[in-house]
């Protein structure tokens, strides 16, 4: 057997072992694993459709898609339990879809329609689905971090064992709001009163600014040391690695009531947002190299190597996801604008 063939076989065996061992440890059967693939594909196709319809002028305001980062939220939200909360910035479509928001309502929200997830009043950056545990969707970089830490405190204060998954970008960690909130998280966590799971999505850029150009201390996870918050790093392109990490650290946070941080190294395979036309801040070679580690492709290889799915089965899953997305676009397109009577509703909390 040629050396490369042998190496390829060995690599496949390792991948199979990794997937099988993690699935067994987490109690995931084959259907669950295929379901995770389905979720990542749905996100990718949803984001493709969002970008396409944005360019067609059907989506107003702004749009940031999650393509390339799917393994992070898919892996962490697999450890989410009823009563837990998730809060994130503006790259939030995936989080909503994973938590169970109806793709039709999410797409209609991007289109600004009255049938949208928040009645067309939030748009892409401000998705909310409290019933499913999504507490936003925020456009101000870092602005949601104190809110997430506060929610975690409230949960323990009220006596629940919920965990707050707080997603933040590599750009947000330089924001003052992060430092104030992380300080309190560490402090309250000493008394078991801050079950915040910080999930730092290091996609290596904040708009067009690379991590190296944003901070002299590029080990972002280590920035949690200042606040006595323990941390680790995970390969954010590898769903299996994220799943294993997420399960372990979520349980730890739930048990201890202490915050914990994971830096997931990832990459957005598309532009920062819909207005980022030329991506001049990074080279085509860099993007090409990361495309080779596309989280969906990597997971696909693992499923095939482990015999959990075959090409035909994966194709069927992709077709099914495409139908869901097509239907969501049709629904959004055909939905009415928010009615005029809604103009003044939901501006202030109801006085109850
Ligand atoms: C307080 C604040 N400053 C600046 C901006 C403009 N802005 C929008 S996105 C962004 C980059 C944030 O990068 P990161 O946190 O890494 O998130 P990513 O876009 O990579 O997901 C900036 C600076 C903003 N929205 N809010
Ligand atoms: Mg970033």
Overview of this structure, please?
Strand 4 and strand 5 (209-210) form a beta hairpin. It is globular, with a radius of gyration of 20 Å. The mean pLDDT is 95. It is of the alpha/beta class. The chain has a single domain, classed as Thiamin diphosphate (ThDP)-binding fold, Pyr/PP domains (Rossmann fold). It is built from 12 helices and 7 strands. The strands form 2 sheets. The protein has a 5-stranded parallel β-sheet. Strands 4-5 form a two-stranded antiparallel sheet. Bound molecules: thiamine diphosphate (TPP) and magnesium ion.
Low-confidence stretches: none
Distinct small molecules bound, one entry per kind: thiamine diphosphate, magnesium ion
What fold name goes in the CATH topology slot? Rossmann fold
| H and E string | HHHEHHHEHEEEHEHEHHH
Strand content: 5-15%
Please outline the major beta sheet: 5 strands, parallel
Count of alpha/pi helices: 12
Structural class from helices and strands?
alpha/beta
Question: How many domain regions?
Answer: 1
**What is the terminal-to-terminal distance?**
75 Å
Fourth-tier CATH superfamily name:
Thiamin diphosphate (ThDP)-binding fold, Pyr/PP domains
**Which word captures the global form?**
globular
- Side-by-side strand order of the widest sheet: 1-2-3-7-6
Which CATH class is shown?
A: Alpha Beta
What average pLDDT do the residues reach? 95
Radius of gyration: 20 Å
Bin the helical content: 40-55%
CATH architecture: 3-Layer(aba) Sandwich
Number of strands: 7
């Amino acid at each position: 057997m040629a050396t490369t063939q042998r190496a390829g076989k060995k690599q496949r065996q390792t991948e199979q072992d990794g997937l099988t061992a993690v699935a067994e440890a987490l109690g995931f059967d084959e259907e669950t694993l295929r379901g995770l693939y389905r979720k990542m594909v749905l996100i990718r196709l949803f984001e493709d459709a969002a970008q396409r319809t944005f360019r067609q002028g059907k989506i107003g305001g702004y749009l940031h898609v999650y393509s390339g980062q799917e393994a992070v939220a898919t892996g962490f939200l697999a450890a989410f339990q009823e009563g837990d909360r998730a809060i994130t910035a503006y790259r939030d479509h995936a989080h909503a879809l994973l938590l169970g928001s109806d793709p039709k309502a999410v797409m209609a929200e991007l289109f600004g329609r009255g049938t949208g997830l928040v009645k067309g009043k939030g748009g892409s950056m401000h998705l909310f689905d409290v019933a499913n545990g999504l507490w936003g969707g925020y456009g101000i970089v870092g602005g949601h971090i104190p809110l997430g830490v506060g929610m975690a405190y409230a949960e323990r204060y009220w006596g629940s064992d919920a965990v707050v998954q707080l997603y933040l970008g590599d750009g947000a960690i330089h924001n003052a709001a992060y430092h104030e909130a992380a300080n309190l998280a560490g402090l309250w966590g000493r008394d078991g009163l801050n079950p915040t799971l910080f999930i730092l999505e290091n996609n290596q850029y904040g708009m067009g600014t690379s991590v190296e150009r944003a901070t002299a201390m590029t080990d972002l996870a280590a920035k949690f040391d200042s606040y006595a918050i323990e941390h680790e790093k995970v390969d954010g392109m590898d769903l299996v690695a994220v799943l294993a990490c997420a399960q372990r650290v979520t349980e730890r946070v739930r048990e201890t009531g202490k915050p914990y941080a994971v830096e997931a190294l990832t990459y957005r395979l598309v532009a920062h947002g819909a207005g980022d036309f030329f991506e001049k801040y990074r080279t085509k070679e860099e993007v090409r190299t990361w495309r080779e580690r596309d989280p969906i492709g990597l997971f696909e290889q693992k499923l095939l190597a482990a015999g959990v799915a075959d090409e035909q089965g994966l194709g069927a899953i992709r077709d099914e996801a495409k139908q869901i997305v097509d239907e969501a676009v049709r629904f959004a397109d055909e939905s009415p604008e928010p009615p005029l009577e809604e103009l003044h509703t939901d501006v202030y909390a109801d006085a109850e």
